[in-house]
Structures are given as C-alpha cells and as structure tokens.
Amino acid sequence: MALLGIDIGGTKMAMAIFDEQGKIVFRETFLWSQFKDMAIGDIISFKSKAFLDNKEFGEITGVGICVPGIYRLQSGTVWAPNIPGWDDYPLLNSVKKISGETPVAIDSDRACYILGESWQGNTVGCKDAIYLAVGTGIGAGI
User: Fold this and answer.
1) Which residue in 6, 11, 23, 2 sits closest to 105, CA to CA?
2) Which of 62, 63, 80, 84 is the most exposed place for a label (fewest CB within 10 A)?
3) Alpha helices, DSSP H only, in the chain?
4) Per-residue pLDDT tens over the stretch 26-56
5) What is the pTM of this model?
C-alpha cells in the first residue's frame, strides 16, 4: 500500500509517495515555470496520473492534497488567491477524473501541515498545537 501526497503552492508543487508508516519513499518537486503553456490544473492532473500509473512503489490507495487557500468541502472547489484563475477551481472533480476509485482528500495547507506535525512531527502527543504559515500568504491551522 502506498499513498500519494500533493502539496500545491503558489510557485511550485511537491509530490511524494508515502508508505503506511508515513515514510517518504519517493518525492519530486515541480516549479510552475517549468510548464510554460499548461494551466496549473492541467499540470496537477498530468503529474498525478503519472504517479498513479507508476506501480514501482505499490498500488496507491489514497491521495491527499494540500492547497494554498481555502478548500470548499461541499463543492469540492478551491479558492487560492496566489494561483491565477483559482477563485472557485473544481480541484476534486479534476483529480477524481484521474484517480478513479482511489479516495482523494483535500484541505488547506495549514490544516495539512498541523496534521502532519501531530502524526509524525514535533507535536506528537501534544493536546493542543497551532501552525502559522508565512509564505506567499499568511494563514493558521489548529
């Protein structure tokens, strides 16, 4: 079993394959500028398909995506102010076309980062934790 993690940022995207214990077994980072004539959503679909089709690390049984903005669970859309055209981008539908029956979870980068810290990082065992993100924008997750 393997999991695909996708970290979407304002200037780049990082993708990694994780084993069941959360260990990274493979990772790549892509700058948006590498893909001159492709829209960011198309790049995400293109690269996601390549990772899902590669069976080198086992069958991917789930996809987790963190976005630099707000994920709207009801509609499956993303508002990301630092990505042009992502005022209401249908990310869930876009990725589900590629992933098929493989479950996809999406959340804000702040929520994903604090989840990772609580599971594998510096806040393991802590009752309360706060993550403050300062990058292209500023945000928080609890």
Assistant:
1) 6
2) 84
3) 40-53, 91-99, 109-120
4) 999 999 888 877 899 999 999 999 999 998 9
5) 0.89
